[in-house]
């Protein structure tokens, strides 16, 4: 047992290396809205190990990640539509409406990875009170090109699992366990500003959880509509910060809006953003933003260089097509990877894939650099990942034909007449060099109208068949056993 | 009956192609098909109900009166022992009859010479110490002072060592001790009510567990597997306001009485549990009240401040309240300060896991002076093993009897092969427990029996047919069987009526014929 002493001391030293940072960035957007981006980062200092002794890192989440072997995890719960043109690139790139979960699982083979994936999503469903348990085989894919690990994964074989649930709602029951993962919870620090009433009535709001190699980042991003041109934290969020979070190593509130007057005066200015350090502020903390007369200052965030638009074509219920429009706003060729996930009952015909540029009627298959296609195998979905080379300042249209299958009446989801939510297409702008990051652009969710049968038909069929059988039987029986009697005339 | 040549339509005759016998044959053949189809229908719609070994299950009453063999050696090193083996045995037998709650589960066998090659033997020794306290030497020897200990006192002490639970306090003990589980999670929490006023950011938890709890946990690993985790909470408000007690002008404290301890754990705001696995969790909480609520004392039932400043929530865990003077943000709760706290945790852990305390007036002298040796004696471990074995055996037999009763009572409850295999395996484990050579093997057999019986009882396959209402069956069968069955039954009734009528007419005709013949004979 003597070897335990250095391990324990090492563990104690590691526990001392945990740190917690929190940050809130408020940006005034050109259309008058305010973008709020909270980040809460807990750094472990080392990777998750079997010794489960934590101070700042949440124990429940640490155990879940450890037991299911998740080396990297990204979960996003969003509601609303992110406007890339007006609001620019989102600070958290996963803005797909609904729930999106993707993770690199440490597993030696596919069976073990699938088992761990089932356990992980059910455990996360319990932690966040979201129905992540329904991210089952019909929605899980393993995209080959679009999701790379952000940092070097630890030793061992890893497999990627990605799933989306577009119809998932976000509400207070997801925010409350999210806040409980923070050291200071809602009593002190920047998390006290998260008011569920205001947050969930914002045009866009989303919670996200990222875990990579010992660093847990919890983020909230939302686009608020301020009630008046001059606003303060109290009027915008209906909350104020009562006390500082003393366990945080840094607690910073920063404003990005050139030309506004802030009251009280910010302590520093970094890269055009005015910052307050909450460790040295007076409480209750309150900031008022005033615009000078007749000017509205805002900050135009950079939009992603490629924009995506996807529509369903065709009016028949069994067949149709998808039309994807990619616009390259840059003056140079951009390589993008487009990820399309379709459920198994929507058959994609790969030979009907057509790519055209602007109004040129020629087919430009040369723009397709590489294609990764996983055909559907019920219940696993189709994964289509072409890598396209977009010419500068052009609009590339991609079309392909689909056919929607007529499923068995037991295979339909509940409320089958609503249709099936097609997960949003994900466009990854591949970096020109390895130094720049790849950015992701999400499309809208589409609703695929499924040809549904009349669900009362099995009972109709059973009753009608039995009735006919009974009638036929009684007719034949009557004829062959009836007694004929001759009556006198 | 038919006459094709002369067909007189005026006579109420039968039609020529109609034969009564043919009609009877047709109806009989329909009925033959129906009767042959009934076994086929019964077979295809029946539920698999494999027979369970009910005779073995009903013979399981022996678990209620099971006796553990205990071997006791009286060692005669100090010359003549004041008590002979025969006297000891007689006294124990009398005690068994009088106090069956304590002695009923034991079968004590006294030996005079040392039993070689046996490791689970206890021994009774005598010393000449006039002071009078009893000692437990080493691990397994009870040494009593021959001067002051009389035979009844010796038997009392032996009873408390061998079977410490069977007393009037057993009911309270039974509710405090957590139910047996092969794996426990021990969760240690440093709960600061408000770390900005008074609190600690971190504590030397791993070192403290290693130093203070590891020895006992190592000994208890024979019974349970332990998984240890810890975390720190910084803002853990109380859900209620504790009572303020003013002792003097500038000195007062906050009191936690009996009612407040019941509602102390604020599960809504404190994140204590985790959802990683299904194993039961024992929570150990170190609570540091904020500067508004300090100092905080736990009150005993009599109304005075408890020395340990701690309390237990039965089957859930234990809480210790610690009132530091003042803290700075860089402070770390070090191992030395945690010593009294972990002593309390140690006691709470023992109480929650059912480890029996040493009887009053007995002192434990360990076998060696090496620090961190086993703090529990073999008497205590053996008593705990016996109690848990009995608990497992009783729960297994109860589960098995419930399964058999349930299957007998609910007619459409399916019993598949895996349930039957689990029931059989549980019964085999219980038999293995009865015939086990030593206590450890008996314990593991009882544990396996309890796990298997519980798995069989909660098998999800058994629930499938429970919610199949009979109305659905009737609704499906009636549209087919009613139009088919009614003509069959009605035709049979008609045939029977016709045959009876014909027989009656036949008899009347015969009688008329006989009467006429007699009349003719008389005329002649």
UniProtKB/TrEMBL annotation, chain A:
Q: Which GO terms describe its cellular component?
A: GPI-anchor transamidase complex
Q: What Pfam family is a match, any one?
A: Gpi16
Q: Where is the signal peptide?
A: 1-17
What InterPro entries does the annotation carry?
A: PIG-T
Gene Ontology biological process terms in this record: attachment of GPI anchor to protein
Entry keyword Lipid biosynthesis: no
For this UniProt record, the keywords arranged alphabetically read as follows: Signal
| Name of the protein in its database record | Gpi16 subunit, GPI transamidase component
From TrEMBL, chain B:
What keywords sit in the KW lines?
Answer: Endoplasmic reticulum, Glycoprotein, GPI-anchor biosynthesis, Membrane, Transmembrane, Transmembrane helix
Where does the protein principally reside? endoplasmic reticulum
* Membrane topology category: Multi-pass membrane protein
What does the record give as its pathway? Glycolipid biosynthesis; glycosylphosphatidylinositol-anchor biosynthesis
GO biological process, any: attachment of GPI anchor to protein
Is the keyword Membrane assigned to this protein?
yes
May I ask which residue range the UniProt record assigns to the signal sequence?
A: none
Keyword Transmembrane helix listed? The answer is: yes
Q: Which domain of life is it from?
A: Eukaryota
Q: Name one GO cellular component term.
A: GPI-anchor transamidase complex
Where does it localize? Answer: Endoplasmic reticulum membrane
Q: Region labeled Disordered — which residues?
A: 503-524
The protein's name: GPI transamidase component PIG-S
């Amino acid at each position: 047992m003597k070897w335990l002493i250095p391990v324990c001391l090492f563990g104690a030293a590691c526990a001392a290396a945990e740190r917690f940072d929190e940050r809130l960035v408020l940006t005034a957007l050109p259309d008058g809205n305010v973008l709020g981006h909270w980040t809460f980062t807990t750094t472990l200092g080392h990777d998750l190990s079997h010794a489960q002794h934590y101070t700042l890192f949440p124990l429940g989440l640490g155990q879940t990640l450890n037991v299911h072997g998740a080396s990297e995890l990204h979960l996003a719960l969003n509601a609303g539509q992110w406007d890339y043109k007006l609001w620019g690139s989102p600070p958290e790139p996963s803005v797909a409406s609904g729930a999106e979960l993707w993770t690199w699982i440490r597993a030696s083979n596919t069976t073990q990875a699938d088992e761990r994936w089932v356990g992980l999503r059910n455990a996360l469903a319990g932690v966040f009170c979201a129905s992540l348990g329904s991210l089952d085989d019909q929605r899980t894919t393993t995209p080959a090109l679009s999701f790379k690990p952000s940092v070097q994964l630890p030793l061992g074989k890893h497999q990627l699992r990605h799933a989306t649930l577009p119809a998932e709602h976000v509400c207070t029951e997801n925010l409350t366990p999210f806040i409980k993962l923070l050291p200071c919870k809602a009593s002190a620090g920047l998390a006290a500003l998260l008011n569920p009433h205001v947050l969930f009535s914002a045009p866009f709001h989303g919670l996200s959880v990222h875990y990579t190699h010992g660093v847990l980042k919890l983020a909230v991003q939302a686009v608020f509509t301020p009630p008046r041109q001059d606003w303060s934290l109290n009027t915008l969020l209906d909350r104020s910060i009562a006390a500082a979070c003393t366990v945080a190593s840094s607690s910073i509130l920063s404003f990005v809006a050139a030309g506004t007057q802030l009251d009280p005066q910010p302590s520093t200015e970094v890269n055009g953003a005015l910052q307050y350090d909450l460790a040295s502020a007076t409480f209750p903390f309150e900031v008022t933003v005033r615009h000078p007369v007749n000017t509205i200052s805002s900050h135009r965030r950079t939009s992603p260089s490629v924009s995506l638009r996807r529509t369903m074509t065709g009016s028949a219920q069994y067949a149709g097509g998808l039309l994807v429009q990619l616009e390259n706003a840059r003056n140079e060729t951009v390589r993008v990877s487009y990820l399309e996930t379709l459920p198994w009952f929507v058959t994609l015909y790969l030979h009907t894939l057509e790519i055209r540029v602007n109004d040129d009627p020629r087919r430009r298959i040369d723009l397709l650099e590489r294609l990764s296609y996983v055909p559907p195998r019920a219940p696993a979905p189709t994964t289509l990942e072409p890598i396209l080379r977009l010419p500068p300042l052009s609009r590339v249209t991609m079309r392909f034909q689909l056919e929607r299958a007529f499923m068995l009446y037991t295979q339909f989801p509940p409320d089958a007449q609503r249709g099936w939510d097609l997960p949003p297409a994900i466009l990854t702008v591949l970096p020109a060099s390895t130094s720049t990051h790849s950015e992701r652009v999400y499309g809208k969710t589409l609703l695929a109208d499924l040809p549904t049968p009349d669900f009362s038909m099995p009972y109709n069929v059973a009753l009608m068949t039995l009735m006919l059988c009974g009638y036929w039987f009684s007719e034949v029986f009557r004829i062959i056993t009836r007694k004929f009697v001759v009556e006198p005339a | 009956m038919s006459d094709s040549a002369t067909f007189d339509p005026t006579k109420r005759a039968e039609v020529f192609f109609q034969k009564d016998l043919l009609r009877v044959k047709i109806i009989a053949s329909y009925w033959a098909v129906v009767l042959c189809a009934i076994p086929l229908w019964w077979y295809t719609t029946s539920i698999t109900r494999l027979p369970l070994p009910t005779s073995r299950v009903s013979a399981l009453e022996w678990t209620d009166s099971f006796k553990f063999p205990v071997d006791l050696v009286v060692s005669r090193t100090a010359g003549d022992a004041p008590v002979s083996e025969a006297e000891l045995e007689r006294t124990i037998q009398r005690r068994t009859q009088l106090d069956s709650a304590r002695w009923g589960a034991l079968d004590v066998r006294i030996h005079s010479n040392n039993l070689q090659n046996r490791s689970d033997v206890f021994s009774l020794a005598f010393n000449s110490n006039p002071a009078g306290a009893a000692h437990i030497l080493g691990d397994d020897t009870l040494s009593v002072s021959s001067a002051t200990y009389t035979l009844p006192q010796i038997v009392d002490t032996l009873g408390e060592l061998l079977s410490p639970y069977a007393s009037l306090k057993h009911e309270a003990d039974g509710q405090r001790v957590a139910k047996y589980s092969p794996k426990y999670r021990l969760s240690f929490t440093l709960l600061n009510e408000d770390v900005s006023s008074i609190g600690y950011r971190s504590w030397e938890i791993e070192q403290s567990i290693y130093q203070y709890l590891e020895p006992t946990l190592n000994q208890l690993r024979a019974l349970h597997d332990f998984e240890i985790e810890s975390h720190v909470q910084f803002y853990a408000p109380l859900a209620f306001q504790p009572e303020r007690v003013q002792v003097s002008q500038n000195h007062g404290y906050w009191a936690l009485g009996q009612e407040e301890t019941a509602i102390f754990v604020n599960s809504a705001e404190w994140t204590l549990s985790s959802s990683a696995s299904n194993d039961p969790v024992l929570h150990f909480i170190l609570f540091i009240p904020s500067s508004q609520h300090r100092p905080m004392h736990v009150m005993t039932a009599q109304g005075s401040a408890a020395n340990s400043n701690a309390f237990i929530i039965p089957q859930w865990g234990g809480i210790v309240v610690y009132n530091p003077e003042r803290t700075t943000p860089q402070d770390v709760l070090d191992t030395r300060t945690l010593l009294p706290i972990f002593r309390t945790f140690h006691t709470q852990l023992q109480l929650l896991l059912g480890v029996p305390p040493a009887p009053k007036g007995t002192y434990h002298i360990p076998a060696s002076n090496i620090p961190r040796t086993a703090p529990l004696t073999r008497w205590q471990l053996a008593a705990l093993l016996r109690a848990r074995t009995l608990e497992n055996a009783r729960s297994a037999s109860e589960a098995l009897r419930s399964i058999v009763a349930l299957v007998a009572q609910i007619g459409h409850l399916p019993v598949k092969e895996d349930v039957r295999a689990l029931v059989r395996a549980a019964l085999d484990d219980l038999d293995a427990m009865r015939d086990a050579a030593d206590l450890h093997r008996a314990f593991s057999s009882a544990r396996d029996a309890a796990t298997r019986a519980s798995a069989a009882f909660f098998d999800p396959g058994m629930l499938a047919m429970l919610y199949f209402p009979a109305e659905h069956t009737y609704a499906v069968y009636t549209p087919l069987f009613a139009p088919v069955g009614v003509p069959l039954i009605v035709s049979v009734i008609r045939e029977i009526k016709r045959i009876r009528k014909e027989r009656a007419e036949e008899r009347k005709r015969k009688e008329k014929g006989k009467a006429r013949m007699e009349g003719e004979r008389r005329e002649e």
